[in-house]
Amino acid sequence: MKDSKLRKVAVAVTTLLVAGTLGACSAGKSSSSSSSNTQVNLKTAYNNTGKVDQSANKNSTLKVAEPNDSPFEGISDPTLSSNQEDFDVFSPSGADSLFNVDKNYKIINGGLANLKLDRKAKTATITIRKNAKWSNGMPVTAKDVEYAYEVIANPKTTSQQYSSDFNAIKGMAAYHAGKAKTISGFSYPDGQSGRVAVIHFSRMSPSMQYSGNTFIWGTVEPYEYIKNVPIAKLASSSQVRKNPIFTGPYKLDKVVEGESTSWSPNKYYYGKKPQIQHIVISVVSSSNIDKAIQSKKYDFVIPGGVLHGTDYKTLKKTKGYQIVGQPALSYDYFGFNLGYYDTKTQKNVMDKNSKMANPKLRQAMMYALNLDQLNKKFGNGIVWRANTLIPPIFSKYYDKSAKGFPLNIKKANKLLDEAGYKKKGKWRVQPNGKKLTIYFGVMQGTSTQEAEYQDYLQQWHKIGLHVVFTNGKPMEMNSFYDTLEKPKQNKIDVFAAAWGLSSEPTPTGIYGEDATFNMGHFVSKKNTKLMNEMNSSKAWNTAYRVKVFKEWQEYMNKEAAYAPGSFSYDWEPVNKRVKGFDVSPANNNFWSNLAFTSSDMK
């Protein structure tokens, strides 16, 4: 269950869930206004001491819930998928992860492949284990390692995982620009069909030691299986949508489009053999998830699935279930539309004349929100106001002293006055005297989330800003992201969403100049400089790297191009017939370790 990439999380603003990748629904709130601690204290594992029931393992089905109010897209390939929901429903596959990690997400030996870094030679050597095979029996090869980079960086790709850090690989920039057919920085000591791939870099980064870093991609691609599919069409191909193959503990048996996935053990898996023989993961709406758990329709909610503070209040004492969780690798945020994505240069461009270009306008909108009160009302100790764009699970880099944007109506009005947004009747107008209407994009969610959205609008109206929903109402999740991901759009001026982060906190892949995830199109020389410094040669000194991370957090709060919304716990109810449930990072065999102690749910 390791996070190896950035993902959009189905989120509804100030209430967040988890995650590498965009967000869906929210998670709830806490009464903490200091952004330093949650009220809950959850364990990362359920210690079931019951005896394993082998008959149940063989004949019973593990039923897993994926809470979401929209169908999942169905993109099984981790290089092409960007939504948390796709990652969730295909997670028994192992997500084709290359590396095992320790409790701090540091890469260790023992996974599909081992990693060796050579700072002097500026190389990363990836050695695939001898018995590594795909679920159709094909061997995993060095070319499978390299082809993931081709898929990500191809000029015609639909992948959103590219960032400027990949340019540290020799030849990558030329390939990404369409000036080379291959990536020259890869070599194969025993050939492309061998087990060793060597990546040659122009510079090395301390982040390379950790999974989810933005220099070394953490998954493989089945080159021989997909090589005849144009990369531009890969996401819609049958190899990805209907008949995907994987390297992990389970193979896919069936996909009910947008609704469910079914799994059975992969006989070619190199690692610990799965104990449970049948798994079904089903999408459950946010309005039905609580009743579904209470009526024992599901063994657990998928780790990383979107659950709210109101769900926690309802489910925390449900008979037959144990609540498990840990601080989330995610946060929800507010973003502002500041420009566009240039498809020719493949870079984001700031437009100084955009509606939301003035940082004082953005700051004022954030100071007008009463996120602490909403957290106190709805969070139940699970979610609290965020103060930076680095979540506290990254305790080394997280700036707990940052203030973020606590409610301050007086300051909000002062900022708007200083910026020239004068009142003309009920509403403020632009500094040039023209009418100002700000369009707010959000995703459909629960009644609690709808109440939060209305509160945001009311708070903004208090400072004289005419803010209305895009299209007059919350948007369906896929439609929301389809709009934001257009190279240029003017339907959404400010939006609320969430990130599921990778397990290494460098933000280049989200907020970099060439990051396609940078949907607000924020670009500045200082932002680029600070992110580059996070992984410079100086950054091998931990104290220096921490200093840069904290400086970046302060800078981003000042710019408020992206503003922190909420942090949370990532939690899930687990039925007490399940044994081996452990979401800690060092559990590299999450799905294989699961077993039943009974044929019936407790």
TrEMBL record:
Residues spanning the signal sequence: 1-24
Alphabetized InterPro entries for the sequence: Peptide/Ni-bd, SBP_5, SBP_5_dom
Keyword annotations from UniProtKB, A to Z: Signal, Transport
Family matches, as Gene3D superfamilies: Dipeptide-binding Protein, Domain 3, Periplasmic binding protein-like II
GO CC term, one of those recorded: periplasmic space
Residue ranges occupied by any Solute-binding protein family domain in the UniProt entry: 117-511
GO annotation, biological process: peptide transport
A molecular-function term among this protein's GO annotations: peptide transmembrane transporter activity
Protein family according to the UniProt entry: Belongs to the bacterial solute-binding protein 5 family.
Name by which UniProt lists this protein: ABC-type oligopeptide transport system, substrate-binding protein
Organism: Liquorilactobacillus vini DSM 20605
